[in-house]
Each structure stands twice: as structure tokens, then as C-alpha cells.
Amino acid sequence: MKYTINHIPGESRTNERYTVNDNTELTNLVISNVHLYRDQETLGHFHVDQDEVYFFVSGQGSMLIDEVTH
């Protein structure tokens, strides 16, 4: 499978915090394209038996992973 940042097959949703496109075809890896709006944050979550990789394109912020802020 080949995906681009502008085409991730799956589900899309938008709210006051972000726009996200979630891949629903893969089973062991979470691939999403997320645009987090300025001064917003996401809620903590986890994926059972799946890995999730974050790749930041621009901006700055912090991420809490296992009780450690990065």
C-alpha cells in the first residue's frame, strides 16, 4: 500500500480542536493525518495491540507519554 499525506483511506472527522483522517485499512499500525488547531489539545488515548508514530510537520507543543512530558 502507498499513502500520501493528502490521501489516507478511512474515516475523517472535524471538531473545534482538530481535523483528523484515520486509516481504517491497517491493523497493527495507526496512520492518521491530524491538523491540530492553534492553542488546542487532544485527549489522551491508547491503541491496544497497535503502534502509533507521530511526525510533526510544523509548530510546537508538548506530548505526555507514560507520565513524562516531551
Give a written overview of the molecule.
The chain has 70 residues and is an all-beta fold. Helices cover 0% and strands 34% of the residues. It contains no helices and 7 strands. It has strands at 10-14, 18-23, 29-30, 32-36, 51-52, 64-65, 68-69. The strands form 3 sheets. A 3-stranded antiparallel beta sheet has the order 1-2-4, with no helix packed on it. Strand 1 (10-14) and strand 2 (18-23) form a beta hairpin. The relative contact order is 0.19. The mean pLDDT is 81.
Q: How would you summarize what this structure contains?
A:
The protein is mainly β. The chain contains no helices and seven strands. It has a three-stranded antiparallel beta sheet with strand order 1-2-4, with no helix packed on it. A two-stranded parallel ribbon has the order 3-5.
Rg calc? 13 Å
User: Number of helix segments?
Assistant: 0
* Main pleated-sheet profile: 3 strands, antiparallel
Strand line-up of the largest beta sheet = 1-2-4
Helix content: under 10%
Are there runs of 5+ residues with pLDDT below 50, and where? none
Percent of residues in beta strands? 25-35%
Total beta-strand segments: 7
Mean pLDDT equals: 81
| Helix/strand structural class | mainly beta
Head-to-tail CA distance between termini: 31 Å
Element-by-element helix/strand order: EEEEEEE
Could you say which overall geometry the principal axes of the C-alpha atoms support? globular
